[in-house]
Amino acid sequence: MVSRSYSNLLDLASGASPTFGRERKTLPRVATVAGVLSELDDDNSNSVGSDAPSSISMDRMIIVGNQLPLKSHRSDNGQWSFSWDDDSLLLQLKDGLGEDVEVIYIGCLKEEIHPNEQEDLAQTLLETYKCVPAFITPELFSKFYHGFCKQHLWPLFHYMLPLSPDLGGRFDRSLWQAYVSVNKIFADKVMEVISPDDDFVWVHDYHLMVLPTFLRKRFNRVKLGFFLHSPFPSSEIYRTLPVRDELLRALLNSDLIGFHTFDYARHFLSCCGRMLGLSYQSKRGYIGLEYYGRTVSIKILPVGIHIGQLQSVLNLTGTESKVAELRDQFRGRTVLLGVDDMDIFKGISLKLLAMEQLLIQHPDKRGKVVLVQIANPARGRGKDVQEVQSETTATVSRINETFGRQGYKPVVLIDTPLQFYERIAYYVIAECCLVTAVRDGMNLIPYEYIICRQGNEKLDATLGLNTLTPKKSMLVVSEFVGCSPSLSGAIRVNPWNIDSVAEAMDSALIVSEAEKQLRHEKHYRYVSTHDVAYWARSFLQDLERACRDHLRRRCWGIGFGLGFRVIALDPNFRKLSVDHIVSAYKRTKSRAILLDYDGAMVLPGSISNTANTEAVGTLKSLCRDPKNVVFIVSGKDRKTLVEWFSSCERIGIAAEHGYFLRPNHEADWETCVSVPDFDWKQIAEPVMQLYTETTDGSTIETKESALVWNYQFADPDFGSCQAKELLDHLESVLTNEPVSVKSGQHIVEVKPQGVNKGIIAEYLLSTMRQKGMLPDFVLCIGDDRSDEDMFEVIMSAKDSLSQVAEVFACTVGQKPSKAKYYLEDTTEILRMLQGLANASYQANRNAPAASQRVIFAENK
């Protein structure tokens, strides 16, 4: 089988004609290769373009998860049979995608398939269920799932640090390599079926966190969403993971990343800021991260349940019979219900201890209240699961021995698998549902409980309820589970506080009937409108929005292995060709050159107190050319700039963002803006000093015309927060002063109104025009927000330029800018300027020296 957009590369190599039909094809068995693939070993290292139009225009969604939404059974004669797993979220979300969206599933089967059967089985599943199985050898799968996923990622994402070998164990590089290998196998499977121009890919959960990198590497414009169903830990926890950067960068190769709660998204954004130096913005309700020219959108929406499935089970005769049985079994008693997996994070033992405390503090509840704890089989394995099972059994035995009597057990532990309809029946008869997990990504048990408590006419009759009477329910929910924020009517608890949980249980029992009805109505309204279809539909809509500019932008990939990323740029924003600008330079006769120094010719934030000798030498060469007028426009003070560029006698200097100006070495300093006094400094400096004392790592830079508060070396989150407060504080106290308060990259600056680098560009162009020297070549280079004023001036200065003028506004690095060109770093800028200087040298080596001026722009 081949993709609809390209054929098998082996067929092309052999000269066979490519086939794009939907007929039976042989699936390559890439997933059956044993062993571990290096994270840097990618057979398809070159990105495949997606310029060819697809042969099918219908929207298609490729859903990728660890397991396929299938149930499998092998008969006695060795034949496999399959059916849909109605409990699988991946299957349920299909309801929200629309009938016209074709869905293909990619994942593993729950059963091991012999290699001899894999090809035929894969073709059958594709044709019958549109499922593409990823076959992984048992050894590799064990390292991938039970190793890296369950020993490293799952505990860490649930806030468990590997402080000892018993707590997850030390980081094992071989398990990480297995994780990467399995993700690459999944990528190969996606490649078999994807039509990158048309298809959307939706990857699910922490098992496949590096898959986005492999997919983005194959197709730069792939439309890719990722949803994390587990918690995302705070940066203090996540930063302990040795492969933290690799996972973050892999996720950022998605177009849309989804989380259940704002807390999880906030932690992810914090990690991106602290470890990768990325900042996010919220625009019109959407959160986005700028990553190499691409905007990675963040989606916050808790998943819902499949209400139709629950209601169909509620209508079963078996459910009605089970409800009647439980009604008789617990007649005269109030049932509290807990439904949890048997693992260390579900807080089962804490719930049991709270029940014990309730019976101790409220003896009147003995004989009247029963806690039914349904313990589902653990998904993981290991010593911790066995300890949870032992502790649970021992605690239940102790409580029942202490408070039980003939015909009454205060705790009923059900640790054998139940049919779905049996579990539903327990929901129906329970007065209160308890969720005391110490950490859980979402937990849909409360949602299921709410729908089941709404019931139907049959169940109302079985329980002897009036159909017209409003339904009621109560929830006690841990504040550490993802569903907690959406259940505003629940009693939220800290599960570690046993007394508090016991008190909440008592409150749930004694609350008035009217209150129970109001809480139930509120929850039912939310759960019934925010089901799994709503969640899937909302995610797809945001994914379409996040990908709408894919075809408009120019994209190419850079980096190796898991460091791969895609650069996306506006078609009009391109890299400055040295050959192109040198050619234009040679053709022109009146040149204006404005350059930034710090950030453009040396690395930003450099602590060196001397000028770059290579940069100064290049400037001197440019100044010798009589056709050049060169200016440095800088945020630094004039004393420093004079010391640095004293050897460039004909260079023009604009200090402190253009407040001070000196056209050449022989001229006097002048100011571009008239400022009567600087009395405002006496107001602003004490305020800045206050924030400096309370923000470790921040400093104040005092200039002749400005004050700058710098928090580059402070904690990024706290520094940013303090900067916002300082900005508001300064704007408040300086309202009546002739100054402007601006925030920049790690700074808050107060300077006289009207001072910006744009006025230097205007001064230079107007001066040249007055002298009859209309520039036919303009070069302006800068690296940050303050340089945008210069870019704006030269890009719109048609009246001050020659009709054939060539304008080069160039920023440093690929980022949103008013400039049309960019160069990657200071090294490329110096190389380009040296190219211009060499051109001047060749043209003027036989000409007599003439006077000229140089103007440079710098902004820090």
From TrEMBL:
InterPro entries: Glyco_trans_20, HAD-SF_hydro_IIB, Trehalose_PPase. Signal peptide: none annotated. Its EC number is 2.4.1.15. Keywords: Glycosyltransferase, Phosphoprotein, Transferase. The keyword Kinase does not apply. It comes from the Eukaryota. Transmembrane segments: none annotated. One of its GO terms (cellular component) is cytosol. One of its GO terms (molecular function) is trehalose-phosphatase activity. GO terms for biological process: trehalose biosynthetic process. PANTHER family: ALPHA,ALPHA-TREHALOSE-PHOSPHATE SYNTHASE [UDP-FORMING] 5 (PTHR10788:SF94), TREHALOSE-6-PHOSPHATE SYNTHASE (PTHR10788). NCBIfam families: HAD-SF-IIB, T6PP. In the C-terminal section; belongs to the trehalose phosphatase family. This is alpha,alpha-trehalose-phosphate synthase (UDP-forming). It comes from Carya illinoinensis (Pecan).
